[in-house]
Amino acid sequence: MIFIPITVAVLANVFYHVASKSISPEQNAFMGLVVNYATALLASAILFFITPHEKFLVEAAKTNWACILMGISITGVEAAFIMIYRSGGELSTASLIVNILIAIAMLAVGGFFYHEQISLQKIFGVVLCIAGVVILSLK
Questions:
Q1: Contact of 67 with 10, CB cutoff 8 Å
Q2: CA distances, 3 to each of 6, 108, 128 (Å)
Q3: Residue 139 pLDDT level (bands cut at 50, 70, 90)
Q4: Same domain for 85 and 98?
Q5: Lesser CB count within 10 Å: N end or C end of the chain?
Q6: Quick check: 136 and 92 in contact, CB under 8 A?
Q7: Cα 13 to chain center, whole Å?
């Protein structure tokens, strides 16, 4: 069953990056984000109401700090990618480099905050990732 959400995540990310690179450079990036979030709000509301749930206020009361942090984080991610693409970042490598660096950071976060095992195999993977970022960054 994990195949379906992974496929959706990949397709959504491809569309996300194509859209980020295609936002008009004449438009203020944050107005673009206002439109993005209005669309996301509508899509999320529709999906909320067509999926199993408790009453609206019961579900809203379950909200914690993580939802707020995620909203702020998403704003940062989207603004950063718009800036990356507007400053000449390539669609073919910008996301790859950022995601490799995120994976390295998440290895440290997982080990430090969640006490996940950091094996030699993972460390070797980090070394390969860093080498990949260096290779991709060469012109």
A1: no
A2: 5, 27, 26
A3: confident
A4: no
A5: C
A6: no
A7: 8
What pTM, to 2 d.p., does this model score?
0.87
131 pLDDT above the threshold of 90: yes
* Cα distance between residue 112 and residue 97, in whole Å: 23
pLDDT tens-place string over residues 12-56 = 999 999 999 999 999 999 999 999 999 999 999 999 999 999 999
List the domain range (segments joined by +) for residue 64: 1-89
Please identify which residue in the block is written with the tokens 């980090």.
126
Question: Do residues 59 and 53 make contact, with C-beta atoms less than 8 angstroms apart?
Answer: yes
User: Residues 110, 80: one domain?
Assistant: no
Q: At what angle do helices 65-86 and 29-50 cross, to 10 degrees?
A: 140
